[in-house]
Amino acid sequence: MLRKTITLLYIFLLILCTAGCWNRVELNELAISVGQGIDKEDGKYKVSTQIVIPSEVALKAGASSGIPVTLYTGTEETVFEAMREITTVSPRKIYHSHLRILVIGEELAKEGIGKVLDFYARDHEYRTDFFIVIAKESTAENILSMLTTIEKIPANNMLSSLETSEKTWAPTTSVTLHELIRSLVTEGKSPVLTGIEIKGEPSIGDNVQNIEQINPAAYLKYTGIAVFKRDRMLGWLNQEQSRGYNVIMDNVKNTVANVQCPSKGEMNFEVIQSKTKVKGTVENGTPKIEVSIEAEGNIGEVKCAIDLTKPKTIYELEKQTEDSFVKLTQETIKTVQEDFAVDIFGFGDVIHRSDPESWKKLKKDWNEKHFTDLDVNVKADIKIRRLGKIGNSFLPEMKE
């Protein structure tokens, strides 16, 4: 019995030793993909993948440096096949687990992105926390071909710019694969994705001389939010409407609002803290939504003759700012209702959670009938906390 136990233990230890690294791949055998793009070309999927060149990225400051990335493409009937076709030009196996951003061409987005998302959600080599954006009036391949300043790796530049813009300006929204799929399968909410475009001359964007200039002739810029119905893109919200969307979705961390002064002129209000609550009710079969915005902030710039030392002035500015926020959100909602007729705000989901029984009757034709005529009441409560380093502006006191 003892001999049998020792033998089994010995076999078990041998199994542990032999199974440790059976599928290992050395780092120098991999091509690390940080950005990928999907387009539709002649009925086929064209996959572009941005690969980091380790020898260029690792160069110390002061050393001569070439382009830090390369772009491989493959075109086939399916995304999976196109991805595998890239191995015919890549000397290394593509490693996908470090993917930071996925760019989808606008034409493909209008056709439908569901099949593309199925591949990325299904393949075990991909994580689900990479961000997805739409190439506005361009192809994903052209976007990924652009070289960028500051960040040597363009995909990292795109990621950092997306996150920074969302945190400090709020015209963009960061959407991961996991979040996008959740929006697609959630009743009463249609998905959105941020757009990215090429400003300037696209043909020189992949030239290293372009980024060696103080003012590059071509560069990438995030611009507006793409509206979807199911998995098909319908159109775009402009920058102001995109900010209005983020206010409603409680996705504003910091932004700047241009506000009319009580008298002639304008002032800027910097939001430093914001909270939006959305409540839904159904009264006699009619759904209603209430949006409550609470925000605190500072005065960032004054271009009018007002006395900031008076509490009455601060109160008037707060009311003007409240009116500005209400107007922004109401106009955004109206635009989406009239131009797209899809509920990107998740108002239907709010009704679903607050009154499940009523939602069963409303959900069938929610977008086409109920959302387009939905009564949305918006109210705002704004508090000004600080005036900046100075009180009243010196502009009215300047001598002739």
Task: Describe, in short, the structure shown.
The chain has about 400 residues and is an alpha/beta fold. It has helices at about 1-20, 55, 80-85, 105-110, 115-120, 140-145, 155-170, 175-185, 240-250, 310-340, 345-355, 355-360, 365-370, and strands at about 30-40, 45-50, 70-75, 95, 100-105, 130-135, 190-200, 220-230, 230-235, 255-260, 265-285, 285-305, 375-385. It has 2 domains: about 30-235, no CATH class; about 240-400, GMP Synthetase, Chain A, domain 3.
Description of the structure:
The chain has 400 residues and is of the alpha/beta class. It folds into two domains: 28-237, no CATH class; 240-400, Nutrient germinant receptor protein C, domain 3 (GMP Synthetase, Chain A, domain 3, 2-Layer Sandwich). Helix content is 33%, strand content 31%. It is built from 13 helices and 13 strands. Strands 1, 2, 3, 4, 5, 6, 7, 8 and 9 form a nine-stranded mixed sheet that branches. It has a four-stranded mixed sheet with strand order 10-11-12-13. Strand 8 (218-229) and strand 9 form a beta hairpin. Its main location: membrane. Keywords: Germination, Lipoprotein, Membrane, Palmitate, Signal. It is a lipid-anchor. Pfam families: Spore_GerAC, Spore_GerAC_N.
